[in-house]
Amino acid sequence: MSMKAKFSHAEFDLPAPEGKWTWERRPGGVFNAEKRDSKGNLLARKKGAILEEGNKLWFQIEGRLWAGEVLNTALSAEAEAAGDADLIAQFPGKVRKVLVKEGSEVEEGDELLLVEAMKMEFSVKAPFAGKLEKIHVKADQQVSPGDRFLDLIPTEDA
Amino acid sequence: MMSRYSSQNSSQNSSEKKKKLLVANRSEIACRIFQTCREMGITTIGIYAPGDEDARHVTFADEVAEVSAYLNADAILKVAKDLGADLIHPGYGFLSERPAFAEAVEAAGITFVGPRAETMRLMGEKIASKKFADEHTVPTLPWVKVKEGEDLRPIAKRIGFPLLLKASAGGGGKGMRRVNEESELEAAAESASAEARSAFGDGALFIEKLVLEPRHIEVQVFGDGKGQGIHLYERECSLQRRHQKIWEEAPAPHLSKKTKAGLYQAALQLVEATQYKGAGTVEFLVDEKENFYFLEMNTRLQVEHPVTEMITGLDLVKLQIEEALLGDDFKLPEVRPAHGAAIEVRLYAEDPAKGFLPTPGKVKELIWPQGSGIRVESGIEKGQEVNPQFDSMLAKLIVSGVDRDQAVAKMKEALKQTVIFGLGTNQSYLLSIAEHPKVKEGKVTTAFLEKEFSNFFPILAEEDLELLSELHDSAEFRGQGGSLQKGSNKSILESPWEKYRTYDSQALKAKAEAAQ
């Protein structure tokens, strides 16, 4: 079973753990890690912090934050099959405008909705080309995380 | 309701009644103002809107009261009266640039910490302020104001593309859109107008000629309200994402003494002409030939005021409050030569790799950087829920060094020490900015981030993935929400001084458990 680290914009395969690193655990989830060769020569030294809760992962390495999930590939394949996480509200907000109509065909990347949250406006784009079967929201509607904006049926490959 | 709400405080009859100041704002700026109040022996009153009960500023205030919204001026005034506030500080954003609020505060017999309402009205009207600047020989860019829904095409063609649409009523990048060609105009105007209406309650826009790749330089000023003013040098805020500043510094690098002197002169002309009272900022665009154009004047404290404090040694909030308390007896401070260099970054709960989408959540771990030359102004605490209905700025990190090189180095160090877990932040983005050669050189424009960072697609290095894999496998850093407990968690109870536990023992334990 191989593992993946999944972040908002990318997934990375985690290599099988081979025990190349040692670390000292410090308060606050902080670690000082070292990698040495068999002769004990220092190869790399990294400072960071990590917190895992369920699948959720927060990994700070030399000042860079990676907030995402650790998945085994079986699970992430399932998520990929769903393929349309972008069409589900990830945070509470308000639908500002619906830019498409039921039954219309859209291309990948087409803007479908405008959503407002944290006083900013964001567009929801089509994650793939397809036909809009159903639109579940309307303008000025409040949405909560997990609410589905619309159903998009992928265009069959010719 | 909070138990600290007590209306009896207003009827204290002590001969030396402590002054009370209400901050009509939230989060880090409320905390910033409270700190100075506490240092001055002033009692602080905080307000909070539903959903913001956990926020740090609520903890920090001496007395607090709930209001339905931070924009509810009537509710805020009622709290101020009930609790006996002598002063109201509006912070930035929200009601800070609404002259009607300043007037209502004064009418209630409370001192508004800020400029006179008439100055706010003049400078808050982008058109009027530009006319005013023109009249006082301060250069401006060509512009036209339009009503909501008006046909923009003829006006836009006259001004020429590219152009900028801006909310007439406010700042902070909200309601601002760049339009490259005519075909983009309609959609951009509609969404800018809607964003402006939601943020400021007014959808009116204005169109302005766009200077390609300018620098954003602003001058901090302070006026005594009688026509005398001082400048507290300039700040450069060219690093902006979605027209919102995220990296600000003082002084501006690579700007000639002559240009600086011109900017100070222009800013002071406006201070004198308006008989400006209190702290303000005059913003300019500076082109590659160092021509400068007046953008607007912000009649309030700015988010980035700390960098000016760091290079001048002044406390701007203290000056504001002293002026509010002393009135005509207030004397402008003596301004010493600026020293060193200071940089501020804004930490946001947002995902730069996904169009700056908000990433709210609960703060599960929080470690702020510390050490020489590092200042943190935060609005969050460990355990606090960061809610999406409020602005997503979590904190400002400010550093100061003997020179700019040291300040940049300190900023990298400060970011490396920062740990915020439980939500997403722009920490990596900020660190990548700090490490960029152009930023190190100090040669950037307002176009820089869009150019160099529009495809911010960070890659986890092979070595880091390897380490992550082993840390994950050890299950040593799992929080309480974790279901998977691999290996033995006995180690957590062992001495924290235990050094260099190796992965091998973990692997063997995990293997043994799996075999059972």
**Helical amount of chain A:** under 10%
Mean pLDDT score of chain A, rounded?
Answer: 85
Strand content of chain B: 15-25%
Number-wise, the strands of chain B total 24
Q: Can you offer a commentary on this structure?
A:
The complex is a heterodimer of chains A (158) and B (516). By secondary structure, chain A is mainly beta. Chain A is 6% helix and 53% strand. Chain A is built from one helix and 14 strands, in the order βββββββαβββββββ. Chain A has one helix at residues 73-82; strands at residues 3-7, 11-14, 21-26, 30-36, 42-53, 56-61, 64-72, 93-98, 105-106, 111-117, 120-125, 130-135, 142-143, 150-154. Chain A has a seven-stranded antiparallel beta sheet with strand order 2-1-7-6-5-4-3. A four-stranded antiparallel beta sheet of chain A has the order 11-10-8-13, with no helix packed on it. In chain A, β5 (42-53) and β6 form a beta hairpin. The longest helix of chain A has 10 residues, at 73-82. In chain A, 33% of the residues are buried. The mean pLDDT of chain A is 85. Chain B is of the alpha+beta class and 516 residues long. In chain B, strands 14-13-10-11-12-15-22-20 form an eight-stranded antiparallel beta sheet, with helices on both faces. In chain B, a hairpin with a 4-residue loop joins β10 and β11. Chain B contains 18 helices and 24 strands. The radius of gyration of chain B is 25 Å and the shape is globular. Helices cover 35% and strands 23% of the residues of chain B. β3 (21-26) of chain A pairs antiparallel with β24 of chain B, so a sheet runs across the interface.
